[in-house]
Design brief:
Length: about 100
């Protein structure tokens, strides 16, 4: 009976470790992609801001550029929050993997 319980516990632990490692790998792949998106959006935002200052275009074009700039700003904030959340999750996963490895 005890060996059966130990086997079940070991199986659950190995499944949990696999899931943690899988999530860690996802985070390691996702963070660089998000940082690249942030870099691209920051360049777009800066280019739009510069164009709005220099360009004396009609109100419709200015409105469109302003909408694009606002979208870029909101998207940047969302991506930065996602990177922060993934970074915190990564630290938690590494700690949990250390504790599971010690058991």
């Amino acid at each position: 009976m005890e060996t059966a319980i130990k086997d079940i516990s070991a199986d659950r632990t190995s499944v949990a470790v696999r899931e943690l490692r899988s999530r860690r790998t996802y985070i390691q792949l996702r963070i660089p992609k998000i940082r690249e998106e942030i870099k691209t959006l920051a360049e777009i935002r800066d280019r739009l801001s510069k164009a709005m200052k220099e360009d004396q275009a009609g109100p419709e074009k200015m409105r469109t550029m302003n909408e694009q700039r606002i979208y870029a700003i909101h998207e940047l904030a969302r991506l930065k929050a996602e990177v922060g959340g993934l970074g915190a999750e990564r630290k938690q996963i590494l700690e949990r993997l250390k504790t599971v490895g010690k058991e």
